[in-house]
Specification:
The chain contains 26 helices and 28 strands. By secondary structure, the protein is an alpha+beta fold. Strand 22 and strand 23 form a beta hairpin. The two termini are 45 Å apart. It binds zinc ion. Zinc ion binds next to helix 4 and helix 5.
């Protein structure tokens, strides 16, 4: 899966452990008085203990799934479930969420369902040791929150679209199932749908026949799959096909957005990826076809359903030619999901604690495939600037966690699916590949996939395969990197004599007393000399360091450097503290550093300095104003401009009316506008600069210019103001209460009636600095009975309190904190992930920090995920106050 929330803020596990874990008894099997396994807890979730007990009894699972979908709000289905049971001594549960059961039969006998709305309990007397058949006929409303079998009515043409999404454990929102990854099964699907619908599933259909007003589709049986990897999507989707590669490829999207999809690009990257992965893994792609479906209201970025991958359509719709950035993102998401077809779908984790390895590995392999099989050779550099920085940020939070953590129940399956899981995990795999060598690493992966295909595996199995291929014991490495949280810091210490290095040491420090682990790691240490205008590489040494101090004798005798970077080439996962001379070089001569990855790392060192309160924000912005316009590397320019926009957001959090904030905002606006003008003829650069301009514009002259561009009174040579840009401008104008902006939202909504247009209009509406708007929408998003689909609620939350609208945020801050416990109890983890990320009030003042601290002290009963969000907001608010003091002190 590819996540897409601005930040996911989940947390460890302590509370749920006590709620869900049944009593674990010490009696052995030989004990005749052994107490029976306690009954499964009556709630919406499945505990690891209950799942393991079920998996120990059940095997050879097959589902015959029959569905009838009419386009209405409810669908019906019949699940015929066959399986082998080890013993009929105890009840057995089958998961099925919020359905109305029409009939239940067990081994041919009709029985009255014992059903609590979450799972059916089958009585031992109805079961037999050996083969069992259970048939459940039911009805159920479609989901509208993106899980289960989601239904959406297209506002443009009234057509109905459905798709399934199951990860982590939502298959039982669609059919009766043992909804746990280690009960892999085969699936045979028949489905009746309206005549103009397509149906897409793991296999291809073997027949489509009339069935009354509907048509009945029959699909070939699947290979063995975990329930969360099975899928079925149905609706009047537009289809594109390409048979030019080894595997037939299809792409689907809603009819009303079809013109905004670029199928040729999809097929190009898909074909390149399938060739690459077949070769890399040494195991051919296991399915007969490769389908990709763009779907609306999707909760995440994309999902690796076996051979029927879903993508969040709004991230892949283009109203103009795609920019290089958009193509790079498309390629990398396609590759990520494709990597999962082997790692995740073919070999699957046993339980949700192993989900991180799926995601780490797919992030790692997705980047590798993008770098090696597409035109985006700098994919690793993009990973450094995006994923890896988010991992460093999260690993420095007080709430950080080890990569591998226990997951007591499905309630906690996504608690730790975050930047640690995806990007720190991927970074540790990069490091492991450096440590073992690329060929050994690849062989270990191949062996692992062959050994465990169509089965489930655990971390030890993966590490064991790599260790075996390398001929070394990886126990110590695993403990340091996967079971211990936190990022260490390295610094180079050296002395020079007579212009030469006379001693060189790498010093490693742990983040805190609470996280004392020092690690072993292989990195490159590079020294540079300033030669006229350019930095020249003087010496580059690969070194495996460990412990607090490691001598690097190979550096001795090098010319005394002007710049030392101790993680050159980005092999290591480590925070770099530049020595004072190197830090000064970075600040004053950034543009003279030739190597774009090193330049990116130096920019990052400066930004780290800002976030740690060691470099004033104004110094960073001066460096940005001087150097960003000189940046000719497209990927790095995106990184630097992103930092500039974030810096502006910090200034807004502090005080948007401050004299310095106003002055530097105008300088930043001018920089971005001039960048857009100067890059006329280079569409990628021009759109990158102009997008930044829209994100920075807040002075009256800049807003005037945006308004003029919108109504065609002004133009920027080379730039087409397409519908997406029009919405970005309208939102910006309304956010700053530009005269007439509310009417512009109305007018634009009338021009663009698509659901993307509705979402954009909503974002523009809620961001308006108007107390009545804020009150109305706060009430709506906090209303558990709201009729709005969750995708809209989420948009409203994300845009309700922009950074500069501190006063509005402040007015409702206490009320929002007061509601936290109520919402946390009733609204569910999907809702709370967004609420926790964007609705907990920060203010960048000592008072707001104290308020969050008080809420944290009082909120010890919050769910793990919500409590983590609260603590993260607190820490980030403290950081903002520190940065504010550094700015004031300047
Ligand atoms: Zn993934």
């Amino acid at each position: 899966m590819k996540t897409c929330l601005p930040r996911l803020l989940p947390l460890a596990v302590a509370t749920a452990l006590t709620v869900n874990a049944p009593f674990v008894h010490a009696a052995t099997a030989a004990d005749p008085a052994r107490p029976a396994m306690p009954a499964r807890a009556e709630n919406a979730f499945l505990s690891q203990v209950d799942a393991a007990a079920r998996a120990a009894r059940v095997s050879n699972v097959d589902y015959a799934l029959d569905f009838t979908l009419t386009g209405k709000e409810t669908f019906s289905g019949t699940t015929t479930l066959t399986f082998d049971l080890k013993d009929a001594n105890a009840p057995l549960t089958v998961d099925l969420d919020k359905a109305t059961i029409r009939s239940l039969s067990v081994n041919g006998k009709t029985v009255a369902p014992r059903y609590n709305g979450w799972f059916i309990t089958l009585a031992p007397s109805d079961l037999v040791a050996g083969k069992n058949t259970v048939v459940v006929a039911y009805e159920r409303p479609h989901s509208t929150n993106g899980e289960g079998l989601h239904r959406m009515v297209d506002p443009v043409d009234g057509r109905v679209y459905t798709y399934s999404h199951f990860e982590p454990a939502a298959a039982h929102q669609m059919f009766a199932v043992f909804d746990q990854p280690d009960l892999k099964a085969t699936y045979r699907v028949t489905v009746s749908v309206p005549a103009d619908w397509q149906v897409i599933s793991t296999t291809r259909e073997t027949g489509v026949a009339p069935a009354g007003d509907l048509r009945r589709w029959t699909f070939a049986p699947t290979k063995k799959l975990s329930p969360y990897n099975f899928s079925m999507h149905a609706g009047p989707y537009t289809m594109w096909e390409d048979r030019s590669g080894k595997y037939p490829m299809r792409l689907f999207a809603r009819q009303s957005v079809a013109a905004q999809i670029k199928p040729a690009e999809w097929f190009r990257y898909t074909k390149a990826g399938l060739t690459f992965f077949d070769d890399y893994f040494g195991i051919p792609y296991q399915f007969e076809k490769y389908d990709q479906i763009l779907v609306p209201d999707f909760l995440y970025g994309a999902m690796e359903n076996a051979a029927a991958i879903t993508f969040s359509e709004n991230r892949f719709m283009y109203k103009a030619d795609m920019t290089a950035e958009q193509r790079a993102r498309l390629a990398s998401v396609i590759m990520h999901e494709m990597a999962h077809q082997w790692f995740g779908d073919l070999v699957t984790m046993q339980w949700w604690n192993g989900l991180w390895l799926n995601e780490s590995f797919a992030s790692f392999m997705g980047t590798l495939a993008t770098a090696e099989a597409t035109e985006f050779k700098d994919a690793w550099r993009a990973f450094y600037s995006e994923g890896k920085q988010r991992a460093y940020e999260q690993d420095q939070k007080t709430t950080t966690h080890p990569i591998e953590v226990p997951v007591p129940s499905t309630q906690n399956a996504f608690d730790n699916i975050d930047n640690i899981t995806y990007s720190k995990g991927a970074s540790t795999l990069i490091q492991l590949r450096q440590l073992l060598g690329a060929d050994v690493f690849r062989k270990g992966v191949h062996d692992y996939l062959v050994k465990y295909q169509y089965r489930n595996a655990r971390l030890d199995d993966f590490i064991g395969s790599l260790g075996h291929a390398a001929g070394r014991d990886l126990t110590g490495w695993t403990k340091q990197w996967l079971y211990e949280a936190g990022v260490d810091t390295i610094a180079a210490r050296y002395t020079c004599k007579g212009g030469k290095v006379a001693g060189f040491t790498l010093e490693q420090t742990a983040p805190s007393r609470a996280l004392p682990t020092l690690r072993e790691q292989r990195v490159q240490v590079a020294a540079f000399r300033l030669d006229g205008k350019d930095y020249k590489l003087e010496r580059n040494v690969a070194v495996t360091y460990k412990g607090a101090r490691t001598q690097v004798a190979a550096m001795n005798g090098a010319a005394c450097p002007d710049l030392v970077y101790p993680n050159y080439g980005d092999w290591g996962f480590v925070k770099v503290q530049l020595d004072p001379r190197s830090f000064d070089s970075a600040r004053t001569h950034l543009a003279q550093v030739d190597d774009p990855l090193l330049r990116a790392m130096l920019w990052q060192s400066l930004w780290d300095g800002v976030r740690d309160g060691k470099l004033a924000l104004n110094d960073f912005l001066t460096t940005t104003l001087n150097n960003a316009p000189l940046e000719k590397d497209y990927t790095l320019l995106g990184d630097v401009l992103g930092k500039a926009v974030t810096a502006k957001r910090y200034l807004d959090m502090m005080d948007p009316q401050a004299v310095y904030a106003q002055a530097v905002t105008r300088q930043l606006e001018d920089m971005a506008w001039n960048g857009a003008v100067a890059s006329r003829g280079n569409d990628d650069f021009q759109r990158r600069w102009f997008g930044t301009y829209v994100n920075l514009a807040s002075s009256r002259p800049a807003l005037d210019r945006l308004a003029a561009l919108l109504d065609g009174k002004a133009s920027l040579d080379g730039l087409a103001v397409n519908q997406d840009l029009r919405w970005a401008i309208v939102r910006r104008l309304n956010r700053y209460d530009y005269p007439g902006a509310a009417a512009l939202v109305e007018a634009e909504g009338a021009r663009d009636r698509s659901d993307a247009g509705q979402a954009a209009a909503l974002a523009a509406t809620v961001s308006r600095p108007d107390p009545a708007v804020k009150a109305e929408w706060l009430a709506t998003v906090q209303d558990p009975q709201t009729k709005l689909p969750f995708s809209k609620v989420r948009t409203a939350m994300e845009y309700l309190y922009p950074s500069e609208q501190r006063a509005f945020s402040e007015q409702t801050a206490d009320a929002r904190l007061a509601q936290l416990a109520r919402l946390d109890k009733g609204a569910g983890p999907v809702y709370m992930r967004t609420y926790g990320a964007v609705m907990i009030p920060a203010g960048c003042t000592p008072k707001s920090v104290a308020r969050l601290q008080a809420a944290a002290d009082a909120g010890r009963d919050l769910s793990a995920g919500t409590r983590r969000a609260l603590l993260d907001t607190l820490q980030e608010d403290q950081r903002c106050v520190t940065m504010r003091q550094a700015l004031t002190a300047h």
